[in-house]
Amino acid sequence: MTQQLAPIRWIELGLPHPTDPERLIFLQADGPFALRRWYRHPEGEGEYHLDLDRRTEAGGLTGCLHCSHPELYTRKRFPRMLGGAIVFLAAVLAPFTHYISLAVAGLLDFLIYRSVPDEVVCYVCGSVHRGFRDEPHHPVFDRTIAERLTHGEKAVMGSPMREGGTAGAPDPEH
Fold first, then answer.
1. Is 140 helix (H, G, I), strand (E, B) or coil?
2. 147, 66: one domain
3. 62 with 148, same domain?
4. N or C: which end of the chain has fewer CB within 10 A?
5. How many domains does the chain have?
6. Kind of pairing between the strands at 118-122 and 72-76
7. Which of 139, 142, 121, 138 is CA-nearest to residue 130?
8. Is the separation of the CB atoms in 132 and 32 below 8 Å?
9. pLDDT tens digits, 85-139
10. Rounded to the nearest 10 degrees, how much is the dihedral formed by the CA atoms of 96, 99, 105, 110?
């Protein structure tokens, strides 16, 4: 008997802005199969073309939908500013609370981290993929992959690309 997968209710793609690579433009769809092959940029600065062949039949990813690169990594969708604010506030309050605020901040930080969903990010273009299936699994950030992609032949730590990219690869050992 085959296991029925729950339907995917929404997905979100964060694609790099054409003129400001630090900024992402987010597209939303009712699921991975509701995506079109191209979208007009919301500010009228060209089009985004998507490689929909990088989706699996179950709604997972074998590579980046934006640049087609097969190496992706998984990270928590953790609000970094919130985490920093919690730690800063706890550090300021530490002398007045006999350092209990640090333990409370650590617990609160842990609970927020455990409750936020994962997102998959492309090593090459930085596109963010949210709401897709977890299979095939993409490992957490691996510095050796980033080194190889950034520095090419000059990479000291760069490991060769795994055939098929990171889909189904184990997490790095470091």
1. strand
2. yes
3. yes
4. N
5. 2
6. antiparallel
7. 121
8. yes
9. 998 999 999 999 988 999 999 899 889 889 999 999 999 999 999 999 999 999 9
10. -170
